[in-house]
Write a structure and sequence with these properties.
The complex is a heterodimer of chains A (about 260) and B (about 220).
Chain A: H1 3-6, E1 11-20, E2 23-33, E3 38-42, H2 49-56, E4 64-69, E5 72-73, H3 87-93, E6 94-97, H4 109-119, H5 125-138, H6 154-166, E7 172-176, H7 184-199, E8 203-207, H8 211-217, E9 220-225, E10 228-234, H9 235-240, H10 245-252
Chain B: H1 7-11, H2 14-46, H3 51-65, H4 69-84, H5 90-115, H6 119-127, H7 132-162, H8 174-185, H9 188-219
Helix pairs in contact in B: 2-3, 2-5, 2-8, 3-5, 4-5, 5-7, 6-7, 7-9, 8-9
Chain lengths: ~260, ~220
């Protein structure tokens, strides 16, 4: 990393709109992610935060607006074209972890982790495996390298999924409600992995319903409501000193 | 009335039966190979983002799925040449029709297998930076093939039996040979029983293998 690449946001969204048929889910969202920054996206279900985070790696194509990576606009195809990056380049550098893990069931934990480097980056297998084992050890799963996803708990699956995303050495990590499908007692093990990533300086956008976690790891918080960012500010501003009625009402449900 | 079974007479025509078996196997294997290729193409067309391709493939599929194979054979052999103003070899007509028929069904099996894979799988592959063909080849197809296999084998067993219909356009398969032997010997009971036994001898191992594969696949889930 040199100083030139440090300037300006690493990932940026400008005026993102997304409609599904007549339903406008996102009504013009802006976001700047600086290197090393952790941003939490909170808000009621259906407020558009998951759709928005999926627009950041073009799993959803915005109806309007621009996504920029390293200052370059993302085009509308897989390949880079002229000054704009394609989906391929964007996704190689921006990893994603999903609510329902989406591990590849026909591959072991280790095979899941090395699939991206081998297929996309053409990393030699031995090298990818060595790094894959290291990553699985980092998420506390060195014993589970050869286990298939069907034989892992939800928390273990999600940690494999995080290792799989990290294997691509992403510059940004998008986390889409990664603990929402977990049993309550398994949430902690996944959150602690993410917390450590944040401490290590990973740039992250996190859609979450875990308010205490958001307050803990996020530098900034965006409150989504009905397709717009209704409030944004530091984690302390938003979570500890909410001003709007909507936000107070939303947060109250987590303090019962 | 007691019937005196006499396989001796029929046994003299064993070579005809064996030729019939060869033809039946050839038409089965040939139409399955061509059918898989056609099925893959039709399936690709059905999943295409181009509406004309989707529609065309759909029409082709329904044409062959919604008419009896016997009707198709008669039509391709007797009616199509009149339209084209040419003649068509009965063996070519048989192979073509069998292939189109089974291809239409295979396409549906392939398509159903692919769309049954959770869309999160494809998304996870794309999120890693894979392009469409990589995600299809590395992630979706390996899982889909496993799900397609039981239906695929089942359809292929049906196809094996369906080849017997080509006898109506005088293709010398096992069923046709049995009727030839019957014509020579006037022993329908023996002729057609031997024919049935040949089919059972060939298909029973196949269905058993299919059951075994299905159990193995179920166990590995």
């Amino acid at each position: 990393m040199n100083d030139a690449t440090r300037e300006g946001p690493i990932l940026e969204a400008i005026g993102i709109r997304k409609s599904f048929g007549p339903l406008e889910v996102l009504k013009g969202i802006d976001l700047e992610l600086a290197r090393g920054e952790v941003v939490a996206l909170i808000g009621p279900s259906g407020s558009g935060k998951s759709t928005f985070i999926r627009c950041l790696n073009m799993l959803e194509t915005p109806t309007d607006g621009v996504v920029r990576f390293r200052g370059r606009a993302i085009g509308d195809e897989f390949k880079d074209r002229g000054e704009s990056y394609g989906f391929g380049t964007l996704r190689r550098h921006v990893g994603m972890v999903f609510q329902h893990f989406n591990l590849f069931p026909h591959m072991t934990a280790l095979e899941n982790v090395i699939e991206g480097p081998i297929t996309v980056l053409k990393t030699p297998k031995a090298e990818a495996e060595a790094k894959g084992r290291e990553l699985l050890a980092q998420v506390g799963l060195s014993q589970k390298c050869d286990a298939y996803p069907a034989h892992l708990s939800g928390g273990q699956k999600q940690r494999v999924a995080i290792a799989r995303a990290l294997a691509m050495e992403p510059e940004v990590l998008l986390l889409d409600e990664v603990t929402s499908a977990l049993d309550p007692e398994l949430v902690g093990e996944v959150l602690s992995v993410i917390r450590r990533l944040g401490e290590a300086g990973m740039t992250m956008a996190i859609v979450t319903h875990e308010m205490a976690f958001a307050a803990d790891v996020a530098h900034r918080v965006l409150f989504f409501d009905q397709g717009v960012v209704a409030e944004h500010g530091t984690a302390d501003d938003i979570l500890a000193h909410p001003t709007s009625e909507r936000l107070r009402g939303f947060l109250a449900r987590f303090h019962q | 009335m007691t019937y005196h079974w006499d396989f001796h007479v029929v046994a003299q025509y064993l070579d005809l039966f064996l030729w019939g078996v060869v033809y039946t196997v050839l038409y089965t294997v040939g139409s399955i190979v061509i059918g898989v290729l056609m099925g893959a193409l039709l399936c690709g067309a059905r999943l295409s983002s181009w509406a004309v391709l989707r529609g065309g493939a759909r029409v082709f599929q329904e044409l062959f799925r919604c008419t009896p194979l016997l009707v198709q054979l008669l039509w391709v052999y007797y009616a199509l040449p009149l339209l084209l103003g040419t003649t068509i070899d009965n063996r070519a007509a048989a192979l073509l029709t069998l292939s189109c028929y089974v291809g239409a069904f295979y396409a549906e099996i392939f398509r159903a297998g692919i769309v049954s894979i959770d869309k999160g799988q494809r998304e996870a592959a794309l999120a890693l930076g894979m392009n469409r063909s990589q995600s299809m080849r590395r992630i979706v197809l390996p899982q889909a093939v496993k799900r397609m296999l039981p239906s695929f084998i089942n359809q292929s067993v049906i196809q094996f039996k369906n080849t017997s219909l080509v006898s109506v356009i005088s293709v010398a398969d096992l069923a046709y040979m049995a009727s030839v032997v019957n014509g020579q010997t006037y022993r329908p009971l023996e002729s057609y029983t031997v024919m049935a036994l040949f089919y059972i001898a060939m298909l029973l191992p196949l269905t058993q293998a299919a059951d075994y594969i299905e159990k193995r696949l179920a166990a590995s889930d």
